[in-house]
């Protein structure tokens, strides 16, 4: 009998019953998700007590909040369009299963169960707690600046159409609108039947007003990490109000602090006399861009000569551009390009989660964490 040997491999049809390679070994040692997973796990350990308080002591066990948050982070990091598509990916994507904490044979959750459990995390403001826990990791590594910050806002397109807007039955009175000086604008007179909290708004004069929210971020200037974030209803003064709220959250009251030791860089949207005065009261140097054209705009400049001559101001204006990287990353092909949640509470919660995901991605490059494969 003659045996013929061929180099061509056999296309066998019999499936293997067992696998002897663990998920841990299938993920490359140098994969960027390894460092993100380690930092996420440490942040979740810090939050364990807070997460316990969201659940009853008795009853049917639900999805572990740690797994829910890891899955939502994947949704942001990998630009997954919907929860349904995320569940589909978790069913066959071994990398996603490893990151979330599912074994190869574990059943994937129903999409409705997943979204219902997410509501509990939203009610508990968990995304803010996760952001704070991740920042604690950066603070331990001495990566955060405690004195120099930049602030900005970005438009978040709402999950509503312009045709859904109809006239309000009770519009605000004259002088109580959201425009400059309380001017009543179109967005104050109409309301969306799909998402009542979304407003018609535009940031650029030549742009078209769209249903939207505003996302705000405060970034420290050393590494460009987001130290505070929040979303708000769209309004002309919303960016300045949010900036002061975030600054108070991060810096606190100026007791025992040398005058103007803290700096805040911002664009001309923040060039407002009341806002500049509020920064001075807080002992914060206003490194805000000034208008250079237009008689009406030149009258808005509120900095004094000493503030204009501050040598740190040019540095703040240069560092301020780092915040655009945050918004560019979050909106290029990720959920903030067109958010699919309705209502300010949900939008605010998800915006903070996206900012946390950016910090994790940034820290993964700043803090290389080797992970052993077992």
Describe this structure in words.
The structure is a single chain. The chain has 374 residues and is of the alpha/beta class. It has two domains: 23-124, no CATH class; 144-345, no CATH class. It is built from 16 helices and eight strands. Helix 2 packs across helix 16 (344-366), helix 4 packs across helix 16 and helix 8 (126-140) packs parallel to helix 16 (344-366). The relative contact order is 0.14. The model has no long low-confidence stretch (mean pLDDT 87).
* Sequence stretches where pLDDT stays below 50 over 5 or more residues: none
- List the domain count as a whole number: 2
Q: Outline, from the CA principal axes?
A: globular
What is the H/E order? HHHHHHHHEEHEEEEHEHEHHHHH
Number of strands: 8
Average of per-residue pLDDT values: 87
DSSP helix fraction: 40-55%
Class inferred from helices and paired strands: alpha/beta
Number of helical elements: 16
First-last Cα distance: 47 Å
Strand content: 5-15%
Main beta sheet: 6 strands, mixed
Radius of gyration: 25 Å
What is the compact description of this entry?
The chain folds into 2 domains: 23-124, no CATH class; 144-345, no CATH class. It is 43% helix and 13% strand. It is built from 16 helices and 8 strands.
Question: Which helices and strands occur, and which strands form pairs?
Answer:
Elements: H1 23-26, H2 32-46, H3 48-52, H4 65-77, H5 83-92, H6 94-100, H7 111-123, H8 126-140, E1 148-157, E2 165-167, H9 186-189, E3 190-192, E4 199-201, E5 210-220, E6 226-233, H10 238-251, E7 262-266, H11 273-281, E8 284-288, H12 295-298, H13 305-308, H14 312-319, H15 322-332, H16 344-366
